[in-house]
Amino acid sequence: MANLSDYKTEPRYRAAVRKTERLTPVDTDEVREIQLEVLEPDFDCAVDQSFGVLLDHKDEFGNTKHHRLYSVADVPGRENGHTLLTMLVKRCAYVDEFSGERYEGVASNYLCDRKVGDKITITGPFGLPFQVPEDKSANLILIGMGTGIAPFRAFVKHMYHHEKDWHGKIRLFYGARSGLELLYLNDKDGDLMNYYDEDTFRAFRALSPRPHWMDPIELDKAIEERASELLELLKRTNTYIYVAGYAKVKENLDKAFAKVMGSKELWAQRKAELIAGNKWAEVIY
Asked: Looking at per-residue confidence, does 3 or 50 come out higher?
């Protein structure tokens, strides 16, 4: 897996904030959908790519720039020769485990504070591991947590708007601490619900059992509840699994798929086959 330092910060492009909207209620973690207009016409970005945000920031190691990558959260558009990008940003903070001091996330707070018309510097585009299979009958198991829904929202919209004659199954498992934080799967901004009637697409929600506590989201339960269908998909050689979200979710995923397969050993073997066949991809943060 590549490190952030592996991604070049040249060339750089200027982008203007076209829209910024908070998607989550005020009493939950702030997540904003931000639309950017890239001002240089030679910048282009595809649905299976990400881009960087670069800002001035001096840290304790002497670095003067701060660079973070973001997946596109919608199919990139073009207007007046300029690329339009949509991104999801969660306002983040962390507590130093040694000093106990609270630190605000540099890029996330910077972006959440931007207003319409503000200019930012972006880099890229960079490739994502989530590729659309050439096989139109391939099955996709998509697993997204929190803002990890971003690449899959763009992915699913691309599949149904631009891929013709797709007849493989797509199963999206998406987790959040509460129904209020289920981005794109609610009454306010639920555009992923538009695809519920498709024969090939279904989305399953996974929520924390106690949303006001830091309980793990029951993604494993949502997967285990569909064990029979997932087992059938995992038996097929043209099934792909794509994962995006928090690092801590990986352990629960392995436990859940081990139950689906019947044992840790069977899941370890199947996962190794998926990885070897380039049918497993993940973006973990």
From this structure: 50
Q: Are residues 211 and 268 in the same domain?
A: yes
Q: Which of 230, 214, 233 is nearest to 222 (CA)?
A: 230
Asked if residue 125 has a cis previous peptide bond (ω within 30° of 0), the answer is yes
Q: Which domain holds residue 205?
A: 139-284
Q: What are the tens digits of pLDDT across the range 229-271?
A: 899 999 999 999 998 876 666 777 888 899 999 999 999 999 9
Give me the number of domains the chain comprises.
2
pLDDT digits (tens, 9 = 90+) for 94-112: 666 666 677 788 899 999 9
Q: Can you tell me the distance from the alpha carbon of 36 to that of 17, in angstroms, rounded to the nearest whole number?
A: 5
Residue 134 placed within a domain: no
DSSP, residue by residue, 17-62:
EEEEEE-S-TTS--EEEEEEEESSTT----TTEEEEEEEE---TTS
CA count, 13 A, side-chain hemisphere, 13? 22
38 pLDDT band, cuts 50/70/90, is very high
pTM: 0.71
Measured distance CA(45)–CA(262) in Å, rounded? 41
Place of tokens 């982008």: 15
Specify if 133 maps to a domain. Answer: no
Terminal-to-terminal C-alpha distance of the chain: 11
Q: What are phi and psi of 152, to 5 degrees?
A: -80, -30
